[in-house]
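Onboarding guide, step 5: your first structure request.
Type a short instruction followed by the sequence, for example:

Predict the 3D structure of this protein.
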Amino acid sequence: MSNDVIIGHDGKPRCVWAGAGDTAFGRYHDEVWGTRTYEESAIFEALTLGVFEVGLSWSVVFGKRDAFRKAFRGFEVVKVAAMNARDVDRLVQDASIIRNRGKIQATVDNARAMTSASPSLVALAKSYEITRKRAPRSLADLPRSTPTAEAFAKQLKSQGYRFVGPTSVYAFMQNVGVVNDHVHGCFRATDYPATARSRRRSQ
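The system replies with structure tokens like these:
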């Protein structure tokens, strides 16, 4: 078996980054990452976590996922779009999240863009979907960005989105299943697109 796949607690092979234990990170791998979704709040959450991941590691950001949900009102787009300067000031003092004023403000700005941009973020995500003919053979085969992600990022920036460079946009694409990057040998590498389905944000 590839070093990029690990046998989990339930006997299933997974991408090694998911770990072998029954953990929130493992469940995120199984239920969220690479599973196509068009649900608005799930897409907004994925975009937001990508904003906060810029310059940091995914493990740091994921560890604060529940706190981000609370801080940003369950990622309900309209509610976040209505946040004001006092809300931003309050969140800058919130030690449960990453207290970066620029990223917090960008999240509010991105929610506002989502409420007005056309085509919508959901429609754009659909238009950039990629169906792989085969799973990546290893983690080394996974790109940090692609020409498709570059085009997607450019279009988002033109609509007023912030902190949406090609690398963070490709991570967003992986997260919401626009592309399925589970590696060969992982049990998730074969259940999509054959059984692709929309998902609601993992609880």
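Each response can be followed by summary notes, for example: The radius of gyration is 17 Å.
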